[in-house]
Amino acid sequence: MTGTAPPVVPLSAPPRDVALTAGVSTLAMAVAGGFAAVSVTNLAGDGAAGTVDRITGAGPLLGLAITAFLVVAVLDVVLAWALWRWFGSSRGELAALAGWLRVTYTATLVAAVGHLVTALAVARDGGTDDAAQAALGQFTSTWQLGLVVFAAHLVVLGTLVVRDAGTPAWLGAIILVAGFAYAADGVARLFVADGAALLTVLTGLVSVTSVVGEVGLGVWFLIRGGKNR
């Protein structure tokens, strides 16, 4: 005799509370993630020479950036739960997939941040420019790998938003575009030289669609989410 496993039911929580959790997490991540990304942008430079000096000079700022990345990682897990709770009652499997993809991306982000910690330790311990540059390169490569997973998450999330009667479909469409833009940008960086026009266009598309789609959804959760659900 065989049977089927009982369906997974999202944890019970008031919809408005879930929406507020999702909204606050999204907006806090946008601030922390933006600060962290900008803080590490110029550390690599044009080559290995001077990498240790750049890292040493940015020591306190890099420490804050590492902390900000870890805050983002925690908020990512919180948001993954909130999104699963929000969409899980009607689209459980797809909502669970979106959540697990986000958690997987978060694990990759934490691994990438570990390379930033290594780069900082190399600089503080009098290591070589080559060793510090290698650690920064590993951070970038690992983060780029994670963004491919994040792109898949956005595609699933966008699909959820489009199909959900209680959330704005146009935001879901923008999030879908953001997901495909992230994926295209990640693939292009494997074959296109830095500074190429294509990468500039894709980076701009990623930035615009991410802000409008993800941040827009966060704002919607804060203002409207759960009030009529």
Tell me about this structure.
With 229 residues, the chain is an all-alpha fold. It has one domain. Helix content is 79%, strand content 0%. The chain contains seven helices and no strands. α3 packs antiparallel against α4 (92-124). The protein is elongated, with a radius of gyration of 19 Å.
Biggest sheet: strands, sense, closure?
A: none
| Average pLDDT level | 85
SSE ordering = HHHHHHH
User: How many independent structural domains?
Assistant: 1
Low-confidence stretches: 5-11
Give the termini distance in whole angstroms: 40 Å
Tally of individual helices: 7
Number of strand segments: 0
Strand share of the residues?
under 5%
Supply the helix-strand structural class: mainly alpha
Radius of gyration, in Å, reads 19 Å
Shape descriptor reads elongated
Percentage of helical residues?
over 70%
Protein name: DUF4386 domain-containing protein
Pfam family, one: DUF4386
Organism: Myceligenerans crystallogenes
Transmembrane segments: 18-41, 61-87, 143-162, 169-192, 198-223
